[in-house]
Design a protein that fits this description.
The protein is mainly beta and 326 residues long. Helix content is 10%, strand content 44%. The protein is elongated and about 80 Å long.
Length: 326
């Protein structure tokens, strides 16, 4: 990641612009610097305005989380189309500030000397990092196989992702035998499911957070239970799913959740299995926010398509935690 270090002594820098068209903005600048009698002599108040002339942040489509580090301590603020500002109250004097959205944009560093009783409006402009090869983890896809009769199988994962860990070992595919009770036998050993995870190029993940459900961390278990019941998971599958994702998600304040199902997962990874099986696939994609997103609070929970659990079929679930929206 390219980092920009901006060190200012709070000289007034006007907003750049002209009637002939938009000019490039600096990464950080002072829009307004004024003295206020309502502010304590040892304090300052700051309002940060995030500019996005080229709509690179796509705030008209979804919210984003900005991570702000203040003298080594982290805070998070949620930005959206109609709220592109956030506020800080700090003590007077020297501070080290940094602002980060995600790997697509350069991190901004700002080391101001603040004067007591002052009110500052600050502009921030995030520029694309120009980096390539960014990766995101596809976590714990597990594949359960169910067969009407005991029979051999072969299964391959077709993906641009780089496999990180597989169990049992994946050697250009998995080959073994499936029992009627769902037990998978390979090389003299038995397994309840096939496991893989992978590092995926982020350009393979196309997300629209306008379709997201929004929940509080305290609601996670009830929410997941409801969704998985609607999907038609059995008790083992539900338990495996909830005990993996639940503890992590419960620690979050607010969570936006997207579900990717069946053929929509193929751009991430497709499964090639022989003999033919009904494929029931579900991926959970989620990100934490520190504030509720108003436009999603009124949405009904997005319905999931029930599984086809007849004949020979498989069930696969996995997930992706997005640290900041992509």
């Amino acid at each position: 990641m390219i980092q920009k270090l901006i060190i200012l002594a709070f000289l007034f820098i006007p907003l750049i612009g002209s009637s002939k068209g938009k000019e490039a903005l600096p990464s950080v600048w002072v829009i307004k610097d004024s003295v206020s009698k309502s502010i304590h002599k040892d304090s300052v108040k700051m309002v940060f305005n995030v500019m996005d002339q080229s709509n690179q942040l796509m705030l008209n489509q979804h919210s984003t989380v900005i991570q702000v580090k203040i003298d080594g301590k982290m805070k998070k603020y949620t930005l959206r189309d109609k709220k592109r500002t956030f506020k800080l109250t700090l003590s007077k004097g020297k501070h080290q500030l940094s602002f980060f959205i995600n790997a697509n944009f350069e991190e901004i560093h700002f080391n101001p000397e603040l004067i007591g009783s002052h009110y500052y409006e600050i502009g921030l402009n995030f520029e694309g990092s120009g980096s390539s090869g960014r990766q995101i983890m596809v976590e714990k896809p597990v594949i359960y196989l169910y067969s009407e009769t005991e029979q051999p199988f072969s299964l391959k994962i077709k993906t641009d992702a780089e496999l990180q860990f597989t169990y049992p070992n994946y050697e250009n595919g998995w080959k073994g035998t499936i029992s009627k009770d769902g037990t998978i036998r390979m090389n003299g050993s038995s397994y309840p499911y096939l496991f893989w995870d992978a590092s995926l190029p982020v350009e393979n993940l196309k997300l629209n957070w306008q379709d997201a459900d929004q929940i509080q961390g305290t609601q996670v278990i009830d929410y997941l239970t409801n969704q998985l019941n609607q999907l038609g998971m059995n008790d083992k599958e539900k338990t495996d799913f909830i005990t993996y994702w639940g503890p992590r998600m419960q620690q979050m304040k607010y969570i936006q959740v997207l579900w990717i199902q069946n053929d929509a997962i193929n751009p991430i990874a497709a499964l090639d299995i022989s003999p033919s099986f009904h494929q029931n696939r579900i991926y959970l994609v989620f990100q934490e926010t520190d504030q509720p997103i108003e436009q999603t609070l009124e949405l009904k929970l997005n319905p999931l398509k029930p599984m086809n659990r007849s004949g020979n079929y498989l069930v696969e679930w996995g997930g992706i935690e997005v640290q900041s929206n992509l």
